[in-house]
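User: Assemble these into one structure.

Assistant: Restating your components, then the assembled model:
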Amino acid sequence: MSAPTINPSPRDAQAPGTRGGPGAQGKERRRSSINIPLTALVAVLSLTILVPLYFTVVTALKSPDQLGGTGFELPTSIHLENFAKAWELTNFPHALLISGIVTVGAVVLTLVTNSLVAYAIARNMHRPFFKALYYFFIAALFVPFPIIMLPVTKEMAVLGLDNPVGLFLLYTVYGLSFNVFVYTAFIKSIPPELEEAAIMDGASVWTTFRKVIFPILTPMNATVGILTCMWAWNDFLLPLVILSDPNTRTLPLVQYVFQGQFNTDYTTAFASYLMALAPLLLVYLFAQRWVISGVMRGSIK
Amino acid sequence: MTMATNILKRNRTRPGLNAGAKKKYSVSRTSRTFYWMVVPALILFLILHTLPTLTGMFFSLTNYAGYGEWDFVGLKNYANLFKDDRILSSYGFTFLFAVTTTIVVNVGALFIAILLNAKIKYQTAFRGIFFIPNILSVLIVGYVFNYLLSNNLPLVGQWLGIDWLSTSILANPDLAWLGIVGVTAWQSIAFSVIIYLAGLQTVPGELYEAASLDGASSWKQFWSITFPLIAGFFTINMVLALKGLLQAFDQIVALTNGGPGTSTESVAMVIYRGGFQGGEYGYQMANSVVYLVVIVVLSLLQMRVLQRKEVDI
């Protein structure tokens, strides 16, 4: 994975201007006074992240008899057949497809519905019903999943929703609590005059939402989309209890199920782990800056 | 939120139509649309979230095994919980783990965030690196570290001649929890760092300038300027971390699977195992209700205590 080899130079130059943290004093002085010892310290600390990743990659490339030693040596010969073996054994393309369906389904449905609900709530906070609804969703944030786990598993089976569709529906519904919270805070900062103008022009509330509000929500949509994507892609407990058909296993679930079959075949196991981690890592590699600013935006609300 | 009344005013000035009728029509139609926007979501939420919660609470009063017949047993499940060693030890482990990890994560994340916010080279790249753990599956990270802690860490221990580190700490009932704390912290710090970075960027730089002129040390600047101003972010991080960590499941499955013995079984794990595999549906629902109360009370307490320390600019 050779660590995000993000070309830091052009971005770095922008960072002080756009971010301006503490010490945004004297912009001239700033560039010249880069703290070298601190940079070195951060570099050393970042090894705590990079070394385990490096270890995962080299282990996946070795043959079992190369596993001795400290484990951190470079492979003497590259064994790509680990990936082929893991691909076959876990039926990787299928699990990838399921994880993809669940994640895309969850993200799309969440963006469309949660923003709509938040909009209606944010613009009607003076009405007791909407206000109560807002606090009802927030209160649900405190309900730990294990209390819902057993009953909802039965319920989903009865409803015939113990499949990927049911799964992304659950992510959408369970995400409401947090997302409504984040969206309403943002929507309240949008001046209502914009919608009034649209409504004056004869647009319905729906059209106003679609054409005026939703586009303004883009930064928040990014935040919510990123968080939902990471949640749905990596989640383990919900797929574990909800998905009943072995043919509909998501990537993390497949790693769990095949743990017994990997047994001591660590090189195949690591190849499999790496393949399961790779898609999101690749996306992150390219959208890294966007992801981080998206998450930050969510936390300021 | 005076949109409805504004629309009213506008409609009234519209020529050509029966102003009175139009106003009523428009207002009621607008507000009805808003109801349509939330009602389907509310119904789904009630069915998929509220109903299971209430069903769970209801069955906590029964001896339901998850299948077959059941009877009301009153509060017997609750009484038994407090006499059940496995349950008590799972709470003990969960608290120990969650509190320790929350502290480690927040101290570590605040430290890293301050470093990342300083004038360092390759700032953006380093931020990108420190966030990586957050995008990885908790379960898979657990499997990778399971291997590292079982095979590689003992080598380090032997090399250093430290006895307790020379064998896998995950196989040691007294130390396995520390392994779980370490791996969880490795992963959770990533998210907290980002929240702290967001917080640090709200602190105006002029304050430091003034403090520097007054000759305040960096340490003093941190405690008298930075920390009070980002205390809100500290609260969010502490509450989110503790609440999330009290529900730990994935990493424990991957690292120890609750072992050795049941020494690292978390509450979520006991509920899962007892409820799905042990025929203890009703009993584990009582456990879940207690767990819910514990989480709510702890979160509220935390917010009360921490919010007192917050300051606004």
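Chain B has a mean pLDDT of 86.
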